[in-house]
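To make the argument concrete, we let one protein speak, a sequence paired with a row of structure tokens, as a model reads it:
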Amino acid sequence: MSDSSKPDLRLPRCDGEGVSLEASDGAGGVARTQVSHGASFRDSIVIGRVDTLKIRNEPAPPPASEIPPRPALPEATRFDDSRSGRSRSRVCEMLNFDLIIEARDGTPPIAIVRSPAGDARLPLSSEDLERSIEAIERIETVLRHSIGRSGTRNMRKVELAPEGERLFRTLFPGSIGERLARSLGMTLEAGNGLRVRLLLDLSQPTLARLSALPLELIFHEGRYLCLGKANPFVRTLDAPHPAPPTLVRGRLKILLAIARPDSLPDLLHDEEVSEIERTLKLIPDIEVEILDHATPRSLRRKLLEQSVHVLHFLGHGEFDPRSGEGALVFESEEEESERITGKTLATILRDLPSLRLAVLNACDSGRSNRRAGLEPFGGVASALVQGGLGAVVAMQFPITNGASLAFSQDFYLRLAAGEAVDAAVVEGRLAIHLRNPLSFEWITPVLYLRSPDGLLFEKSRNR
């Protein structure tokens, strides 16, 4: 059945609540929805060419007195869309559009969608996926040798939008893209937001390669998805036991851990460290403590001494593509360098009830493995989320000090205001973009999210 010949099927009245529709396109694509009396098939289920259609009557609902209270949906969050200069703010519900991509040896990847507009399942084109990966890998090479090397580097010659659009079409084909369009329409009409969450099966080589790329380049309808606050794009990991929000009494406490070993080039001069400290201390409802010359032991001790909500690390980061393992470089007791892998750092940060977020201002801290047979969670950011943190903001490219300051100021400003971490990351990226619209440094910060709703902190009413 082509799109042009879809019937406007009116369902007959029945004694039950309505009917369930299940459509199959004969190629593994399945969509399901429930339609109430008199609803239009065209408006209720969209899958393209329909091979099989199943219609089933649904039983009548029980009397209102027998219906238990509906629990709050865990995927719904709220974000404040206020802007300076406005007399009021708009608080929206945020729903999730989950895109899960799985693969099995010898079979094409399967895209699974769970969305406000219904669920869907569709095979992806292995050829299209490979072409998109190769194109983004070429762009990544250019970005890696350009972004962060100079704060004024003009990268207008790099054509990002066309490849970002092609990547979107590859990951959101057919009924997947239609589900997204309908979900966006539904949430927009209701005055809500839609978080687009991507979950990849990292045990599969092709999807591991995809995950290692700057997916923040996904581009659709004239914009990069990761720059939209009402419809943010986030990466999620298949980690058990999502971290609940931690209760914050008083101000949000940030531990600024700085590592400057003598054996490595000093990335941060004293005046730059002071500027970062001043920037954070100017933000209302934030308390900053400095741990200079951070060693693994001093970090653990400081975190045990007091309730810290956010760990902000300033220093060097490394990633070994041969082993697929990332690390942060701390100072040793002799002020030499001490390389701490993501897995070891996850152990250091374990069993700290108040800690929910790590911000890693270190090169390559956001990179992940792309080779078959290696640990899929070997990168620093992914290892920390897998180890239990609610979220990690890391850097997938080098970042200049100016961009880092701009990001931190707006990011923490929104986080302290109670917004979800993904919304705060969008504001941080926009601050980088507005600082230098010709630069693509806004791609550098990458968010790995374990929390299902992005809400990491809950403010206590008793301060």
Notes: The chain is about 25% helix and 25% strand. The two ends are 61 Å apart (CA to CA).
